[in-house]
Amino acid sequence: FPVTIELHLDNPYNKQNATAVAVSPAGRYVAVGYQDGAMMIWDMNEFVKKGNDYRPDRFLNHSAKINDLAFSADGSSLLVGSLDKRATLWQVWDKQFEDLRKMHLEQ
Fold first, then answer.
1. How far apart are CA 54 and CA 40, in angstroms?
2. Side-by-side strand order, sheet with 86-93
3. How far apart are CA 96 and CA 40, in angstroms?
């Protein structure tokens, strides 16, 4: 049977609105970008276990709104684009994200 999970993308740390969402190919992670340049990674395994007590990991690497998020086809990396003209490449590991590189995007 299909399972439906409803996420409220409100940022539990402040009142910023979600501006971008991406789901990893296997469906385990949901990356959400916010107006303030923060990104949160929801681990669906942990969310199912803890319910409303779950708090996603929060990363603040951009100085402007996140407008694009994309997981690679194999789910091993996540690219985050922001209006601060930078992109951040993240390596995805089980329960761990590492900032690989910050790239300045030319206009």
1. 12
2. 66-71, 77-82, 86-93, 96-104
3. 12
pTM as predicted: 0.79
Question: Which residue is listed with tokens 């959400």?
Answer: 32
Query: pLDDT 10s digit of each residue in the chain, 107 long?
Result: 556 666 666 656 667 888 999 999 999 899 999 999 988 888 888 888 998 788 887 887 888 999 999 999 999 899 999 999 988 888 887 655 655 544 444 43
For the chain, the DSSP string reads -----------TTSSPPEEEEEE-TTSSEEEEEETTSEEEEEEHHHHHHHGGG---EEEE--SS-EEEEEE-TTSSEEEEEETTSEEEEEEEETTEEEEEEEEEPP-
Q: The tokens of 22 are what? A: 């991406």
77 DSSP β-pair partners = 91
